[in-house]
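This is your field. Please look over both lines of this record.
***
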Amino acid sequence: QVQLEESGGGLVQPGGSLRLSCAASIIDFSIKTMGWYRQAPGKERELVASISSSGRIGYADSVKGRFTISRDNSKKTVYLQMNSLKPEDTAIYYCNAPVKNQYSWGQGTQVTVSS
């Protein structure tokens, strides 16, 4: 059963923007902290943004000031607004709960920042 489905990725030029969506078929989604991760070729998966059930937000330094995470509990969806994209943002982006026992990973959505 697929619980997390990411979408919204694509090819964008440096400086461009994308908005990623994560549809989470999760019971009690509203009380779960959720996060966005990314994994670039040859690199470990890293957490880039998180948002708690109460709306507390954290960002990795690499995306701070450029990315905005948000959530819509009624839609069980978490978003990542990505602005001022850089080539180093190129990665597969995933959503999940930033906890020890995570949900099964979805397929992710590919973000490619290139001219």
